[in-house]
Amino acid sequence: MRSRYPFGILVIVVLTALRCLTLVAVLLDVRGSPLADWLRGGSPLPQPVPGSDFELIFRILLVGMLVASLLVVIGLLAHREWAWVLAIVTSGLILAINLGWWWYGEPRYASMLLNTVAVLYLNQRDVRLALRGMVATS
Amino acid sequence: MSEPSDLDLLRRHEPILRFTDGELFFPMAAGSYVEACDLLTGPNLREARVTIPAGELDLERLAAVGDPLPGEAQFLRFVAEPMSALELRRWQSRPEHQRFSAPGRLARVGLPARLVDAGLVTSLLLRGRVPGGTAAAASERYDAISARDPRVVYHGRVVREGRWIVLHYMFFYAMNDWRSTFDGANDHEADLEQCFVVLEALDDGTIEPAWFCAAAHDEKGDDLRRRWDDPRMEILEGHPVVYPGAGSHATYLERGEYIMLLPFPGERNIRGPLDLMRRMWRDTLAQPDPGDLAARTKRALSVPFVDYARGDGRVVGPGGDVAWTPIMVSDEDGWIDRYRGLWGLDTGDRFAGERAPAGPKYTRTGSVRQSWHDPLGFAGLGKVAPAMQAVPVLETRIEELTATRAAVVAEADALAISLPEIDSEMAAVRGAAGLDHYRTSRALELRAGEERLASLRTQEVELGTAIAASRDRLTALQAGYRDDPRLHLHHASEPEPPSVARRRAFGEAWAALSVGLLIAALAIIVWFRILSPPVAIVVLIGSYLAIESFFDRNVLELVLKITVVLAMLSALILATTYLRELFLAGLLALGVILVLDSLGEVRRRLLR
Question: Is B478 on the interface with A (CB under 8 A)?
Answer without folding.
Answer: no
